Amino acid sequence: MKQSLRAKRMAKHHKRLGSGSKLNLVSLMDIFTILVFFLLINSDDVEVLQNNEAIDLPKSVAEQKPDNTLTIMVSASDILVNGQQVASIADVLQAEETDIKGLAVELNYRAQRAGELTELQQQKGRAVTIMGDATIPYQLLKKIMATCASTDYRDMSFAVSQIAAKTDDTGVTTEPVDLLPQNIDGEG
Question: Vertex 51, ends 138 and 174: CA angle to 5°?
Answer without folding.
Answer: 65
